Amino acid sequence: MRSFNSEAAISLTERPGAETFAAPWSKILVIFMRLLAMIWMAQGLMQWVTILTPLEPLFNHTDWITGAGIIFFAVFDLVAAVGLWLATPWGGVLWLLAALAQISTALLVRPFFSPLWIVVNGILICLYFALTWFAGQAEGGAG
To answer: Using one digit for the tens of pLDDT, what is the confidence trace for 47-95?
Structure first.
């Protein structure tokens, strides 16, 4: 019999002492969240590279909105990536806020993000909601 670890960051069992693992949709959702975490970690680190190793003085030659965006995404993307990697509900919420902020920034601050990010983030958000819904349906039907 498998023991239940109540201190685990992610539990794939339905309840303490359960023998079976959660539905495949839950596993797929966790894998999707981990892949998103890697992408958002890379984005956050790229923003830090922009801050720490600029080719010319960064904040002297940019407007305040671009500077604020660089700092915001440098911090927020990394925090969202940690939450996604742990597959926590707050990680998904922070990621959704980060993705919506990227869409807004791509629309309002033209040179900051490519307009392609609007489409990519839209697809990723739809995929996240679909996987979350399927995982919830599978857990609801399994009990």
So the answer is: 999 889 888 777 787 888 888 888 999 999 999 999 999 999 999 999 9
pTM, full prediction: 0.77
For residue 77, the Cα-to-chain-centroid distance in whole angstroms is 8
Question: How many Å apart are CA 109 and CA 66, to the nearest integer?
Answer: 8
The stretches of the chain forming alpha helices (DSSP H) are 24-52, 64-85, 89-108, 116-142
Q: Nearest-CA neighbor of 127 among 29, 42, 40? A: 29
Q: What DSSP designation does 10 have?
A: -
Q: How far apart are CA 87 and CA 8, in angstroms?
A: 11
Dig out the tokens for 79 from the structure.
């925090």
* Residue 28 main-chain phi, psi, to 5 deg: -65, -40
Q: Calculate helix-pair angle for 89-108, 116-142, nearest 10 degrees.
A: 160
